[in-house]
Design goal:
By secondary structure, this protein is of the alpha/beta class. It contains 14 helices and 15 strands. Helices cover about 40% and strands about 20% of the residues. The strands form four sheets. Strands 8-15-14-9-10-11 form a six-stranded mixed sheet, sandwiched between helices. Strands 3-2-1-4-7 form a five-stranded mixed sheet, sandwiched between helices. A two-stranded antiparallel ribbon has the order 5-6.
């Protein structure tokens, strides 16, 4: 049986072709690794005008030439609506299930949210593939939560059926789009910077406008003593005069760049002209910041701010889902960062909320394991879907 899986994010398209026996039992979790990889490759989305062009390139590889694939599953970055995904982080990219079936003669095509796929990917992890940031007491009948920053900030949770982890179902979430809530003076200034610099463009893209802040003149009080603020109509009081800014804008995608741009305006005396010029000319600025963080204090400061805000959101995820069966942090770059950088790990952990209810709950939380997902997650989701339906010939 010829199968195709892919992890299609906002920046990369990771595709892999497999072969499994015709009688393969997709419902047996112990068999998830018992397949033969035929070919795999990672493509940069910016090099292709559409996903169909990526798929054409992949299928033209000599090892992939042959009969049509029996089934495929693509984990995609965004919500799947009516078997279609319109990428929020990649303009002009639309993946439609029926179009792929017709264009490439693939008998069965499944589209799933990328973090749903990553959730199923957790089921195939070995202990060697995770880094435990904090151990905890695991409850087998409890939910599992997953959060990960990449081009966007993804979140999902897995819930057991009938109180048993023998059958887990993953559910998508758009939790990464919750509002960024500053916790310090610096973060408050960062939020205002983002609102001033990104807000107008966000408003235009959303087809809305922002009210300008109005200063109301004081007016005499009815008894003639002092002054009082005029009463505003409820509609005006509830209308925001500042742009809504999600935490995703800070901890994923261009978030690290946004933080550095803010810091160099805030601390012009600390700017290293040579590295700043290299940053301005770089097409991979986030990678450059990580590479030179110990040579340039502003790069390091930007990373510390980002990991602190990221850690705060990870703590929020713990409060939202109560994942006493495990809280996982995914993402290739962030997982590598957790692996090699103890200081950033402490910044991430130190930002977890410390409210009393959370600390008491925290003692029972099997928390914080970093891992790298990728195309294997879509393979695991593929197995889950095929086990559930098995309606292709």
């Amino acid at each position: 049986m010829r199968l195709l899986a892919g992890d299609i994010g906002g920046t990369n398209a990771r595709l892999v072709s497999y072969e499994v026996p015709d009688d393969f039992d997709f419902s047996d979790l112990s068999l998830l690794g018992k397949h033969r990889i035929v070919f795999q490759w990672n493509y940069k989305n910016e090099d292709f005008p559409s996903f169909s062009d990526v798929l054409l390139t992949f299928l033209a590889e000599p090892l992939n030439v042959g009969p049509p694939f029996d089934a495929c599953c693509f984990a995609v970055a965004g919500p799947v609506v009516n078997n279609q995904i319109n990428f929020t982080n990649r303009d002009g990219w639309i993946i439609d299930r029926q179009t792929i079936q017709d264009e490439f003669q693939i008998k069965r095509v499944q589209l799933v949210n990328d973090f749903v796929a990553s959730g199923y990917g957790l089921l195939a992890l070995s202990d060697e593939e995770v880094i435990t940031l904090q151990p905890g007491k695991k409850r087998e009948d409890a939910p599992i939560a997953l959060v990960g920053a990449g081009t966007g900030l993804g979140e999902c949770f897995l819930s057991p059926a009938s109180g048993s982890h023998s059958r887990l179902t993953a559910y998508p979430s758009e939790g990464g789009h919750v509002e960024f809530a500053p916790r310090s003076v610096v973060e408050e200034e960062l939020l205002r910077y983002l609102q001033d610099n990104l807000g107008p463009e966000l408003a235009r893209s959303a087809g809305t406008s922002l009210n300008s802040t109005k200063k109301a003149n004081s007016s005499p009080s009815p008894n003639g003593h002092g002054s009082q603020s005029p009463k505003l109509p409820l509609s005006e009081a509830l209308t925001a005069d500042r742009a809504r800014m999600s935490v995703e804008r800070v901890v994923s995608g261009g978030g690290l760049e946004n933080i550095y741009n803010f810091l160099r305006e805030r601390h012009p005396e600390m700017v290293d002209s040579r590295l700043d010029e290299e940053y301005n000319e770089s097409s991979e600025r986030g990678r450059l910041i990580g590479k030179h963080q110990y040579n340039y204090p502003l790069f390091r400061y930007a990373l510390e701010i980002m990991f602190g805000i990221y850690g705060s959101e990870v703590g929020n995820v713990a409060l939202k889902y109560l994942p006493t069966a495990g809280l996982y942090i995914a993402g290739r770059d962030r997982a590598k960062k957790c692996r090699v950088d103890e200081e950033s790990r402490l910044a991430l952990y130190g930002a977890f909320p410390r409210e009393r209810t959370y600390v008491e709950y925290n003692d029972r939380l099997s928390r914080s394991r970093c891992y790298e997902g990728g195309s294997r997650s879509s393979w695991c989701a593929h197995c889950r879907e095929l086990a559930r339906t098995r309606d292709f010939e």
